[in-house]
Amino acid sequence: MDRRQKKTREAIFKAFSELLEHKRYEHITVQDIIDTADVGRSTFYSHFETKDMLLKSMCSDIFDHIFEGNICDYKTENKDLEAVLSHVLWHLREHKTDIAGMFLSESSDIFMRYLHEYLERLFRLHLDDFHFKAPSEFVLNHLSVSFIEAIKWWVKTDMQASPETVAKYFTEVTETH
Amino acid sequence: MDRRQKKTREAIFKAFSELLEHKRYEHITVQDIIDTADVGRSTFYSHFETKDMLLKSMCSDIFDHIFEGNICDYKTENKDLEAVLSHVLWHLREHKTDIAGMFLSESSDIFMRYLHEYLERLFRLHLDDFHFKAPSEFVLNHLSVSFIEAIKWWVKTDMQASPETVAKYFTEVTETH
DNA sequence: TATGATACTGAACATCTTGTTCGGTTATAT
DNA sequence: ATATAACCGAACAAGATGTTCAGTATCATA
Fold first, then answer.
1. Which of A88, A152, B19, B155 has a CB 3.0–4.6 Å from the CB of B103, allowing a cystine?
2. Which of B23, B130, B142 to mutate to test the interface with A (most CBs of A within 10 A)?
């Protein structure tokens, strides 16, 4: 990829991340983004159709990297759920600066929906380990959302606790250990 | 209150509800609302400062009614958590037409934050009944969010299950029964 | 290092949304 | 019946959106 493209793309991502820390997603304008990233208006639109598309691209970039390979590998290696989750949390902390804004931002549903999808896929692999009477769709959603909330709590407390601790808190309140 | 005010207010609420069923909150414009409600632009702004304020007013109206008295009363009467939650769900179903849009809408954080607040207050009253090692703020958030997700699942399945069933699902996956 | 291709710039643009103002009209309470 | 208050609707400035285009800078590569 052309160096210029990469540079512009990263400048926009960075600007967007920064803005998300102080402003709700829906209140961030394209104008804000191009001002902060210091790129031309037409440049922005040549990269991303809309603000939503920008967010989607950003999610893909991050999550594809974090979840890459880990999910299926771990299951086949028979590691337990808590270990897998710890691993995911480790990766998330590496991306702290990229994602903190989105977790703290009041309204970034696209981001959350994305993460949710990945997590449901992860939990579905472990479905047999659970023994709930509630419908599996209910349970899978419950676990995914609960894990996202655990991450939110973690980010809010500046990711002080270890990934293992957070994973333990999670498996405790969901009775999945 | 002047009949006209009440009528206008209700027309706006109704229009907003309808719009939320088909459109995300952030993509609904004031223009949409006044077109649907068939009220003048200035009329809207004489009732609500912003779109956010409209949503807040709507939340207050609904939740104040639903939670009115119930929370504290039930605790003092020593009813168990599941019974209280069933009660809340009953009330919610009565408001089905008002709230379905907000639960199905992808992005109505103000609404959710509101509900979350009420729920945390409710769960906090029962905090002694739980025996989790995770920090209480973590646990309270976990329970509130999990309950909201249970409601979302319920609304998505058109509130077919009984409130008791949903409450049971919830207490099962959170191990709070 | 020369060159064609490609990405960026920045200004202009029509269009839409917002929130306010104000004179005129209609409904309400008593 | 009348004073009060709410509504209407048109107009407005300010700002955002998404597009276009001619000009400039940077890239890959030969």
1. B155
2. B142
Pairwise CA distance, residues B68 & B61, whole Å: 11
Are residues A14 and A37 in contact, defined by beta-carbon separation less than 8 angstroms?
Answer: yes
* Direct distance between the N- and C-terminal alpha carbons of chain B, in angstroms, rounded to an integer: 45
The Cβ-side half-sphere exposure at B65, using a 13 Å CA radius, reads 14
> How confident is chain B (177 residues) per 10-residue block, as mean pLDDT?
92 91 85 96 96 88 72 56 83 81 69 84 86 92 94 93 94 85
Task: Quote the pTM value.
Answer: 0.77
How big is the A-B interface in CB pairs under 8 Å? Answer: 64
Give the distance, in angstroms, between residue A108 CA and nucleotide C6 C1': 34
CB A16 within 8 A of CB A39: no
pLDDT tens across A15-45, in order? 998 888 788 788 899 999 999 999 999 999 9
Give the integer Cα–Cα distance in Å for A131 and A129.
7
